[in-house]
Amino acid sequence: MPGKIPHHPLTIAGEAYAGQSRYEVVNPADGRVIATVAMAGKQEVTLAVQNAAERFRGYLWRSMRPQDRANCLLRLAQRIREEAGELADLESRNAGKPIRAARAEIEGAARCFSYYAGAVDKHFGQTMMPGSRGRGAVYHEPIGVCGLIVPWNFPFLITAWKCAPALAMGNTVIVKPAEATPLTALRLAELAQEAGFPDGVLTVIPGHGDQAGEALVEHPSVRKISFTGSTETGKRVGRAAADQLKRVSLELGGKSANLVFADADLDECIDSSVWSVFDNSGQDCCSRSRMLVERPIYDAFLTRFAARTNQLVVGLPREETTDLGPLITPSHRARVCGFISTAQDQGAHLVQGGEIPAEAPLGDGNFLLPAILVNAHPSHKIMQEEVFGPVVCILPFSDEEEALSLANDTAYGLSGSLWTRDYDRVQRLVHGLEAGCLSVNSSSSVHQEMPFGGVKHSGYGRELGMDALAAYSQTKSVFYG
Ligand code: NDP
């Protein structure tokens, strides 16, 4: 007998609200409803913002002794680790993540809170002597209420990336999770309370993007928006924020290249390249969906890449052996399949994959076998637009110049990889490639300690590293005569 489906009311300033509607949260692996959630409309967003603004003005959080604020963040990291099993299970059921990946992401989120706890009392301003007498001091102050808009592909981890530095700097935050994946963010709000965060410092308001999301961006008391999602929605958010001269950072889509030169260590490169595109079933803004391979090794690369892809286990997220889980929704899978068929119509050849498993137990979920395409033209839709699914295009190139030109030939500029043993070439290419983050002889894009974000249509502003503290603070210069 299935258990009772839990319902999550909206919680604002300790009060429960029914919200403007109820949303059924579905497990993408089997289509079953796992929870219902009260969704915020404009009215509830306004309440949440007023509460967060009052808390900010009340100085309780921003003027708390740095050690005490750091301790709140550390206790939250500890509570996340204590509840890691439950959180990973929840994330896996809500986002369709393979359980091993979900565990790693929960630990990544805990590390993020610990990292910024360490920064609270080590983020200094400056003093100087601007003239012949007197002293200048530059203070780093929090901005105010920050609206944090989170996507569905890494729900808990990205929530942590935004909350931890914003809270470390003394802001109060309102998180708007993606409608499909609100459950771990809601749990985070409970854990924050248990960790001793004052009420109203971290509020989570599930809601639809075009209602709660827009209301958050448009509310004049929200002083900063940090958004991760599609380029289209990012532009809309940027325009609305510009109307109020609101600070905004945008981490948007990608169409990243994986450049493989003939002198690369193929043994390392193949496995890493396969994961670089198919991890999280390709639902990753850093996915290396364009594999560019130097002609002399193109055939060998393709054969080995296809063979390694065949070894990936597409399966139920709860199984320890699963490598790739389902896509987030049936409509998203249909969109991804549309990309594959359009590519074929335009002349690309599907080497393998792209099928929807029909048999139980995968038949009930949004599964899709990883697809490899060749013979796509660089101008084709499949080479230009973000697919956000388990689909890769593999293309040959003749020399470094062509490799660079192909790699830069998209509107996006988030990440990319470079495989070669020639370090002179590395130096030429890392500065020629239009991307915010690159990896050399590795596919690892995101590191807690390094700024993460894009150029061109992949957005602006940086998450992570010490740069994130600057993104959630503003300087104030004071001259003491
Ligand atoms: P969106 O960009 O629409 O959604 C991202 C977040 O923004 C969600 O929380 C969403 O809420 C919210 N949102 C939507 N509309 C608005 C708005 N007008 N104002 C404020 N917030 C809003 O992405 P989708 O989920 O629709 O995915 C579509 C495509 O976007 C994907 O196929 C992929 O290509 C790309 N994408 C990129 C991501 C990245 O990491 N860079 C992450 C997710 C998607 P709600 O969920 O309620 O709509």
Automatic annotation (TrEMBL):
Pfam families: Aldedh (PF00171). InterPro entries: Ald_DH/histidinol_DH (IPR016161), Ald_DH_C (IPR016163), Ald_DH_CS_GLU (IPR029510), Ald_DH_N (IPR016162), Aldehyde_DH_dom (IPR015590). Keywords: Oxidoreductase. This is Aldehyde dehydrogenase. Signal peptide: none annotated. The active site is at E251. PROSITE patterns: ALDEHYDE_DEHYDR_GLU (PS00687). It comes from Acanthopleuribacter pedis. Belongs to the aldehyde dehydrogenase family. Gene3D superfamilies: Aldehyde Dehydrogenase, Chain A, domain 1 (3.40.605.10), Aldehyde Dehydrogenase, Chain A, domain 2 (3.40.309.10). The keyword Chaperone does not apply. One of its GO terms (molecular function) is oxidoreductase activity, acting on the aldehyde or oxo group of donors, NAD or NADP as acceptor.
